[in-house]
Description:
Elements: H1 3-9, E1 14-18, H2 23-34, E2 38-43, E3 56-59, H3 68-72, E4 77-80, H4 90-111, E5 115-119, H5 143-159, E6 168-171, E7 174-175, H6 182-191, E8 196-199, E9 209-210, H7 211-223, H8 226-229, E10 232-235, H9 243-254, E11 260-263, H10 265-277, H11 285-290
Parallel strand pairs: 1-2, 1-4, 2-3, 4-5, 5-6, 6-10, 7-9, 8-11
Helix pairs in contact: 2-7, 4-5, 6-9
Amino acid sequence: MTQATISSREAPKTVLVTGGAGFLGINLIRFLLERGHRVRSYDIAPFLYPEAGRIDVLQGDIRHRALHDRAFDGVDVVVHCAAALPLADPAEIHSTNVDGTFALLESAARKGIGRFVHISSTAVYGIPDHHPLIEADPMQGVGPYGASKVAAEGVCKSFRVSDLVLPILRPKSFVGPERLGAFELLYDFASTGHNFPVLGSGNNRYQLLDVDDLNEAICLTAFGPAERVNDTFNIGAGEFGSLRDSFQAVLDRAGFGKHIVGFPAAPAIWTLRALEALHLSPLYKWIYETAATDSFVSID
């Protein structure tokens, strides 16, 4: 289904986007505005984008129930993107990702919200021993973040017994405007004319996802027929190659003639494990343990 089909078929809706000031949040907000929908952002961080004048901004903690009446007022659909990031304090990760999700769902049910799209992660699969991963595979999240995503999905499924339509999306690592983290390093290296290091050879098959493809998937589940979307879905690129291919394309686009440089994976992983034990690692365990291996999900 094309984006034009979505926009022409759907009447404008009021959409609450939790985590609206984050990378996915702002890209989803722009996607929704382009299609004529009304948007409210609910995020603990300030909303500092030019779109602030075109949406309703609520700054606050999703765990603060006193804000929920204001957050859900007049809302047709909730898209729950807010989450504590993997390198945050473990207690904060659980409190935000699990308790925060539960609080939002309780309020959504009380307010009679009909649809709540939950953004999960392929981190729920842990460090896989086979590919492609399918939605029915066991969930064994690595570390506090992965465990919190597994628990949050359990909370969501417990609310499906009510009249709430609750799609769960598990996107692969997605890229696009405003991206930070490890991909910010890639963009910085590319823009300043440097080679970029990767663990291993970089020849492992690694599936990524364009953020607007994720936005389209969100809209399909936010506005599509309840009997088709009330389920759990992997979201990933239909066509993809190796990690080296994807990252090299960024360096090629920058035009400095730079290249991907592979480093032996095992020593680097041992070093990162030691740094993580000291709470000094720049990368989350699930990232560095899977970066040098195949990583892709079925989107059948």
